[in-house]
Write a structure and sequence with these properties.
Residues 120-408 form the ABC transmembrane type-1 domain. This protein has 687 residues and is α/β, with parallel strands linked by helices. Helix content is 67%, strand content 9%. The protein is elongated. The chain binds adenosine-5'-triphosphate.
C-alpha cells in the first residue's frame, strides 16, 4: 500500500519542488524533500493503521500535513528566490535622467503583425495548459479519495481502483507537458523574431541619424538600447504572455474550484491569501530596490574596469595600474557590501514567508480536518483544496512579479521605440545627382552662419564666403578652434548651416542626394583616420564596396601604401586590429587615403591629414596626397606650412570669417594675419 502512495508524493514533489532548480532551492535536493515526506508518510500510515477507528481525515492529516508543509515551504522559497532572481538578472542602465519616452503600441503592433499566427498559437496553447493546470488538483483529489477509501475499508482491488484516476492524471500531465512545450517553442520564436526585427530596424534608424544626433547621445547609451533594452523588452513580452495568461487563468479557475470544493474554506483563504501576497509584494519591492542598487554598483565597477582596459596604453604610459586597481577594488567592495545586504534581505524574506505559509497550511489542514470530521469534506477534497490553493498562491505571486516586469518591459520598449521613429533632419537619400561627365566640382559657401546644435548660442561661422574653384586646391588656415574643420563638416553635410547656402556647381547641396554626395563626390581624410577591425583589403574597399581587387591595389599604389602592405606576411589580408591599432599612424593614414581615392572623388577634403605624423611619415603621406589631389577640387584644412605649399589659394580664417585670401607670397607680402601665423609657427619650431 505504501508503495502505491509513493508516486503521489513524487508527483507533488516534481510539480512543486523542481522549479527551484537554480539558486537557493537547488542547494536542497528535491530527493531530500521526497525522502523526508516519505518517511513522515510511512510513520503516519503506521500510526493510522493502529488507529483505524479514527476518521480517515485524521490519518490523511498526518499524511498530507507534513507533505504539504514541506512542499509549501519549498514553493514559497522558490517564489521568493525567483522574485529576487528576476530582479538580480535585470540589466540596469546607468544613464543620465531624461524625460521618459512614451510607449507606442502601434509600433509594437508593426513588429508583432508578421508573427501573429505563431503568437495566437502560443496564446491558445498557454491557455490550454493553464486550464489543464486547474484540473490537476481536482484529479489529485480523486486519486487521494481512492487511497483514503482503501485505508478506511481495506476492501476491493486497490491497484485496479487507483489505475483509472492515476492514468487520467498521467494523461493530463502528458498533455499539459506537450502544450507547455508547444507554447514555449512558439513564444520563443515570436520573441526572438520580434527582437531581431527590432534590433535591425533600430540599428538602421540609428545609422540614418545626423551627426548632430551622435553629438548629443553617448555611444554607450545607444548600444544599450540595441542590446539591454531590447533584451529586457523581449523577456517581458514573453513572460507577460506566458506567465501572465497562465497565472490569471489559473487564479480565476482555481478560485472557482476552491469555491466548489468548499465555500467555507475558500472564505478563510480569501481573507488570508491576499494579505500574505500583499506583504510578500511589499518586502519584494524593497528587495528589488536593493537589488537595483547592487546592479548599479556592479555597473559602476564594470565602468571603471572598462575604461582602464579600453585605455590600457594610457594607463601603462602613466604607470597608473596600481591606482586603477585601487579604484576598481573600491567599487567592487561597495558592490560586495550591497550584495551581502541583499542576501541577508532575501534570507529574512524567505524565513518569514516560510513561517507565514506554514501557518496558513496548518490552519487550512486544521479547518479542513474539522470539516472532514463533521463529514462536510472528503479527504480527496482537502487534498484538492490544498493543491488548488497552492496554485492560486503561486499564480498570485507570479502576477505580482509580473507587474514589475511589465513596467520594466514598457519602459525598455519605450526607449527602443523613441529612436525607431526618430527622423533625421538631413535625409540620407532623395534629391538630384549631377551626371559624372558634367560634374565640375566648384563649391561656393555663400553667407554661411553656423552654430552647433548642441551649443546653439555659440556662433562658429559668421556670414562666411568661400569659393573652391574646380580642380584647384584651396587651403584654410587660422587659429585653433576658429572653425576650419566646421567648414569641412558643412561641405560633407554633417550639419546644415543655420543660414546661407552651400552650392555645388551652382546647385544648393540640400537639393542633392546625400548618399551620392558623400559616397561618390567627396573624399574626406582627417587627422585621425579610423579603420575597422577587418583586413586591409576590406578597409580600402569600404570606400567602394563593389571595387575589384585590382582597383583596391591601384588605390593603395596611388596612396603610397602598396609597398608596406605587400611587406606584411598576409599582404592585403592582414587584419588591422581594433580601429587599426596594429598599424603605424602613417600606415593608417595611407590606407585612409586609398579608401578615399578608390571612389575617385571629384572633391577631396584633407583635414589636417598629416599633422599627427612624424617628419618621415609626413613626407611619404604628403607625396601620396600631392598625387591624389591632381585634377581634383581640394579643400585643405591646415596648420603646417608644408601642407599648404602646393595650394592655389590660401584663406585665413578669423572670428568665423575668411579675412585674407591669396597665394602664399601674396599673403606674406601683405604682412597681415597670415604673416603673423607663419612667424608664430616658425618661432614655435614648426615648419
Ligand atoms: N561637435 C561639436 N559640437 C559642438 N561644438 C563643436 C563641435 N565641434 C567643434 N565644436 C566647437 O566649434 C569650434 C570650432 O571648432 P573646429 O573644430 O571647427 O575648429 P578648428 O579651427 O578646426 O580647430 P583646430 O585647428 O584646433 O582643429 C570650437 O570652439 C569647438 O569647440
Amino acid at each position: 500500500m505504501t508503495a502505491d502512495l509513493y508516486p503521489i508524493y513524487k508527483l507533488i514533489n516534481q510539480w512543486y519542488i523542481s522549479p527551484g532548480s537554480n539558486g537557493y532551492c537547488s542547494s536542497q535536493q528535491p530527493g531530500n524533500a521526497v525522502s523526508r515526506i516519505w518517511s513522515l508518510t510511512q510513520r503516519a500510515l503506521r500510526q493510522s493503521a493502529t488507529r483505524t477507528s479514527k476518521p480517515p481525515g485524521v490519518a490523511l492529516k498526518f499524511i498530507l500535513g507534513p507533505a504539504v508543509l514541506t512542499v509549501s515551504a519549498r514553493l514559497f522559497c522558490h517564489i521568493a528566490y525567483c522574485e529576487a532572481d528576476v530582479n538580480n538578472n535585470t540589466p540596469v542602465e546607468v544613464v543620465a535622467k531624461s524625460p521618459a519616452p512614451e510607449f507606442k503600441w502601434h509600433i509594437l503592433w508593426e513588429f508583432v503583425k508578421p508573427q501573429l499566427f505563431a503568437l495566437i498559437g502560443a496564446v491558445v496553447l498557454a491557455f490550454g495548459a493553464a486550464i489543464l493546470n486547474i484540473q490537476i488538483p481536482l484529479m489529485l483529489g480523486d486519486l487521494v479519495n481512492v487511497v483514503a477509501r482503501y485505508l478506511r475499508e481495506h476492501t476491493g482491488n486497490y491497484a485496479h481502483e487507483i489505475r483509472g484516476p492515476a492514468l487520467k492524471l498521467l494523461g493530463l500531465y502528458g498533455i499539459q507537458g506537450l502544450l507547455t512545450t508547444g507554447y514555449i517553442i512558439l513564444l520563443s520564436r515570436v520573441g526572438e523574431r520580434v527582437a531581431a526585427d527590432m534590433r535591425k530596424t533600430l540599428f538602421a534608424s540609428l545609422l540614418r541619424q545626423d551627426v548632430a544626433f551622435f553629438d548629443a547621445n553617448k555611444t554607450g547609451q545607444l548600444v544599450n538600447r540595441l542590446t539591454a533594452d531590447i533584451q529586457e523588452f523581449k523577456s517581458s513580452f514573453k513572460l507577460v504572455i506566458s506567465q501572465g495568461l497562465r497565472s490569471i487563468t489559473q487564479t480565476v479557475g482555481c478560485f472557482i474550484s476552491l469555491y466548489i470544493i468548499s465555500p467555507k474554506l475558500t472564505g478563510l483563504t480569501v481573507v488570508v491569501l491576499p494579505c500574505l501576497v500583499g506583504a510578500g509584494a511589499l518586502i519584494g519591492s524593497f528587495l528589488r530596490k536593493l537589488s537595483r542598487m547592487a546592479q548599479e554598483q556592479v555597473a559602476k565597477a564594470t565602468g571603471v574596469a572598462d575604461e582602464a582596459l579600453g585605455n590600457v596604453r594610457t594607463v601603462k604610459a602613466f604607470a597608473m595600474e596600481e591606482r586603477e586597481l585601487q579604484l576598481y577594488a573600491y567599487e567592487v567592495d561597495k558592490s560586495c557590501e550591497i550584495n551581502e545586504n541583499l542576501g541577508a534581505g532575501i534570507a529574512v524574506f524567505q524565513g518569514l514567508s516560510n513561517i507565514a505559509l506554514n501557518c496558513i497550511v496548518l490552519g487550512t489542514i486544521f479547518a479542513g480536518g474539522t470539516l472532514i470530521s463533521s463529514n462536510e469534506l472528503s479527504p480527496g477534497d482537502l487534498m484538492s483544496f490544498l493543491v488548488a490553493s497552492q496554485t492560486v498562491q503561486r499564480s498570485l505571486a507570479s502576477i505580482s512579479i509580473l507587474f514589475g516586469q511589465v513596467v520594466r518591459g514598457i519602459s525598455s520598449g519605450a526607449r527602443v521605440f523613441e529612436y525607431l521613429t526618430l527622423e533625421p533632419t538631413i535625409p540620407l537619400a532623395g534629391g538630384g545627382r549631377i551626371p559624372y561627365h558634367s560634374l565640375m566640382g566648384r563649391v561656393d559657401f555663400m553667407n554661411i552662419s553656423f552654430s552647433y546644435p548642441t551649443r546653439p548660442g555659440h556662433q562658429i561661422l559668421k556670414k562666411l564666403n568661400l569659393t573652391l574653384p574646380p580642380s584647384k586646391t584651396v587651403a584654410i588656415v587660422g587659429e585653433s578652434g576658429g572653425g576650419k574643420s566646421t567648414v569641412a563638416s558643412l561641405l560633407e553635410r554633417f550639419y546644415d548651416p543655420t543660414s546661407g547656402v552651400i552650392m555645388l556647381d551652382g546647385l544648393d547641396i540640400r537639393t542633392l542626394d546625400l548618399s551620392w554626395l558623400r559616397g561618390q563626390v567627396i573624399g574626406f581624410i582627417n587627422q585621425e583616420p579610423v579603420l575597422f577591425g577587418s583586413s586591409i583589403m576590406e578597409n580600402i574597399r569600404f570606400g567602394k564596396p563593389e571595387a575589384t581587387d585590382a582597383e583596391v591595389i591601384n588605390a593603395a599604389k596611388q596612396a603610397n601604401a602598396h609597398r608596406f602592405i605587400t611587406g606584411f606576411p598576409d599582404g592585403y589580408n592582414t587584419v588591422v586590429g581594433e580601429r587599426g591599432v596594429t598599424l603605424s599612424g602613417g600606415q593608417k593614414q595611407r590606407i585612409a587615403i586609398a579608401r578615399a581615392l578608390i571612389k575617385n572623388p571629384s572633391i577631396l577634403v584633407l583635414d589636417e591629414a598629416t599633422s599627427a605624423l612624424d617628419a618621415e611619415s609626413e613626407r611619404v603621406v604628403q607625396e601620396a596626397l600631392d598625387r591624389a589631389t591632381k585634377g581634383r577640387t581640394v579643400l585643405i584644412i591646415a596648420h603646417r606650412l608644408s601642407t599648404i605649399q602646393g595650394a592655389d589659394l590660401i584663406c585665413v580664417m578669423s572670428n568665423g570669417r575668411i579675412v585674407e585670401a591669396g597665394t602664399h607670397l601674396e599673403l606674406l607680402s601683405k604682412g597681415g594675419l597670415y604673416s603673423d601665423l607663419i612667424r608664430r609657427q616658425r618661432a614655435e619650431g614648426q615648419q
